[in-house]
Amino acid sequence: MTLRAGVVAVQGDVSEHAAAIRRAAEAHETDAEVVEIRDSGLVPDCDVLLMPGGESTTISRLLAQEGIDDEIRDHVAAGKPVLATCAGLIVASTDAKDDRVATLGVLDVSVDRNAFGRQVDSFEAPLDVTGLDEPFPAVFIRAPVIDEVGEDVEVLAEWEGRPVAVKQGPVIATSFHPELTADSRIHDLAFFRQAAAES
């Protein structure tokens, strides 16, 4: 079996996510074909999607400009998995509290951008995540804070009493960067264990 994994590549840390999904797939004896998405027409053929970090205003503008935004909404509506990290979380949300960000509205949360501080305030923390047996080494870089979650949103992890990992339907989103560690368990949770639980 080959998993076709699309990484939204208009901006952000694409190669790290590609490596993480390949590691997670290998652990399940599955091949992962990684497709970098910069144009419309590619998302419909993908089994799973990754929305990396970067600059949320730029990412949302380019997604709308290229017509990728509606394809992502259709992907979610079809029940196909998405992992959105950092700026990807902001873009996926229903409310970024910033008119410059055209959110996708596929995750019923409101987000405070850069709430954990500037680049110099970046940090790593062991995080207890629902579904993982051991703490995850979460890397926070100018991370957004999830202010409010809708009733259909499950909080998977909190840091200092604030949600930093959530799940709604096929979408898992994190404030932190799971791809910046050698630990691929968040990608495994988003794409493989979720699929197994629903099959």
Please explain how this structure is put together.
The protein has 199 residues and is α/β, with parallel strands linked by helices. It has a single domain, classed as 3-Layer(aba) Sandwich (Rossmann fold), CATH 3.40.50. 28% of the residues lie in helices and 32% in strands. It has five helices and twelve strands. The protein has helices spanning 14-27, 56-66, 68-77, 87-92, 185-198; strands at residues 2-8, 31-37, 48-51, 82-85, 93-95, 107-112, 123-127, 136-140, 145-149, 154-159, 162-168, 171-174. The strands form three sheets. A seven-stranded mixed sheet has the order 2-1-3-4-12-11-10, with helices on both faces. Strands 5-6-9 form a three-stranded mixed sheet. The longest helix has 14 residues, at 14-27. It starts with a strand and ends with a helix.
Superfamily (CATH H level) name:
Class I glutamine amidotransferase (GATase) domain
Structural class: alpha/beta
N-C termini distance: 16 Å
Stated plainly, the CATH topology is called Rossmann fold
The proportion of residues forming helix, as a percent range, comes to: 25-40%
Mean pLDDT: 91
Oligomeric nature of the chains: single chain
Number of domains: 1
Instruction: Give me the side-by-side strand order of the main sheet.
Output: 2-1-3-4-12-11-10
Count every helix, treating DSSP H or I runs of 4 or more residues as helices: 5
Radius of gyration: 15 Å
The counted number of beta strands is: 12
Percentage of residues in DSSP E strands:
25-35%
CATH top level assignment: Alpha Beta
Low-confidence stretches: none
Described by the principal axes of the CA atoms, the overall outline is: globular
Largest sheet: number of strands, sense, barrel closure: 7 strands, mixed
User: Helix-strand pattern, N to C?
Assistant: EHEEHHEHEEEEEEEEH
